[in-house]
Structures are given as structure tokens and as C-alpha cells.
Amino acid sequence: MTLLSFFGCKNEPICTVNENNAGKEIYDLDEATCFIALKLNKKKSDLKLIRSALIAEENYMSKIGLTTENPNPESEPESNAELDINQMAEYAMNEEKVELTKDELIEIYDTEIEYLMFIGVVEQ
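The structure assignment produced for this chain is given below.
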């Protein structure tokens, strides 16, 4: 009996997303990673790769000037930079050395939009 519970049931989720965070407008990297993994039916072993892809995205957006460390949005100047998902995937593979294909990265970034809708940062 102990072995069964130790290995777990195949129906158990690899991680959990707190439903109370819906609409809170707070981006949590671990929660985003989990949300994407669950949506894409990934394995627990994929969590680290998804997280790496999201960190690469954050670094890319910072590099092109879409994000700043300034927490006050009132004083943030409008950015003319645009987010090109293909360039971002290329950056993740070539600069950040994320070990995923371009298609896998784009799938992760596309699914992340669902997480952003979940937390209320973007609308459909």
C-alpha cells in the first residue's frame, strides 16, 4: 500500500493552481509554469523547461524595453517595442539556450496568454 501512494495515482495533477488567484492581476512564475503545464498535459519533468522558457521570455522583454524594474506604471514611458513571438522563441533557444523547439516555445507562450487572462492582466 505504501508503494502505491508513494508513486501516486496517474490522475493526480503534477502541480496545482490556486483558483483564488483568478483576477488578482499578480503574475506568479511558479503558478504560470504550473498553469501552462496542466493546460498542455505535460509531465512533472517538463516543469523546469516551461519555467526556463518563461524566464527567457522575461529576459527578452526586458532586453527590448517592454518591461522595466519600475513598479510605478504612472511614470513609465510608453514603449514603442513590439513583442514578436517568433523572435522571442529564437532568443530563448539561441541566447538563453532553452532546450525546447521553436514550436514548443510558441505553444508555451500562446498558452501563457490563457494564464494572463486567468489572473486578469489581459482580456480576451
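Interim note for the steering committee: Helices lie at 2-7, 29-39, 47-63, 85-94, 102-118. The chain is about 50% helix and 0% strand.
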